[in-house]
Amino acid sequence: MHRRSVILMSLILSVVVGNVYTDIKHCPAGSYCPANMKTGQPIPCPAGTFSNVGQGACTPCQSGFHATKPGSTYCTICPAGYYCPYAHLSPLPCPLGQANDQRGQISCTNCNIGYYTTDKGSTHCLDCPPGHFCDDAASLPKPCRLGEANNEMSQWKCKRCGVGNYSQNLGQALCDICPPGSYCNDPAVSPKKCPVGTFSRSGQTSCTPCTVGYFMPYIGSTYCEYCPAGYYCPNVTQVKQPCPPGTFNDKYGQIACEKCESGYYTVNYGSTHCIHCPQGHVCNNARLPPKSCPSNRLTGQVICLDIIG
């Protein structure tokens, strides 16, 4: 055989003999063929690495990429909502309380205070809604407790209701103002009606007692009534009392009635004045009607007087 033919045949055999590769440039993609390999078989790239055609070594995936199977020809970028700390493992979903809105990350970002996530693998954190607080990004929002409220987004705690305000339901965005006729001394408790003899305006922690000469016999009042003329009001918790016969009251706001003077009377309840005893009559009892005097006597006194001369 010609010498040149022998050399050519030797080269061909040195390249491929039964799928045995001895020339690096013929090493297939996804494998590597080191120069000192003895078997002649290409070696698959291990997980976390890749190779193109004709490589003597595999290339590690760059940060944020992964190749989970041996013999990879490329690395895959880590998707949003996941992180890839190890190139040979599958992407890991961001845990609760963390998120990732970009691809190719090796870690996830903790949610800021007042934010949260509902699922693993989140691409973004959610705003804590009004009426709730988020003190743990890995937990669902918690409703504001009784006596508290929150009307803003992304809060990690609720605010206690101010003086004269209350919240009687969980998860309130705003505190309610204590209504007139009630008092709110505990923001976590529903308003209580003002007791008899007291009143209140809105937003009060206590009720105001009626002053002397006023009265209020009903609960939940927004005012006290002024004792009218013809009546007396000895007790602020009771209804007004009419002046009994023989007494009167011509002023407002009185706690007692005045007795009729001698020679005057009133037989009605609730009188504002006493009546002068008329001529020809006697008024010796201010609570009774006048009595007629005998024809020979005068009037206007507590006794009848004889007519002189």
From TrEMBL:
Pfam families: Ephrin_rec_like (PF07699). Residues 104-138, 197-232 form the Tyrosine-protein kinase ephrin type A/B receptor-like domain. The keyword Acyltransferase does not apply. InterPro entries: Growth_fac_rcpt_cys_sf, Tyr-kin_ephrin_A/B_rcpt-like. It comes from the Eukaryota. Residues 1-22 form the signal peptide. Keywords: Signal. Gene3D superfamilies: Tumor Necrosis Factor Receptor, subunit A, domain 2. This is Tyrosine-protein kinase ephrin type A/B receptor-like domain-containing protein.
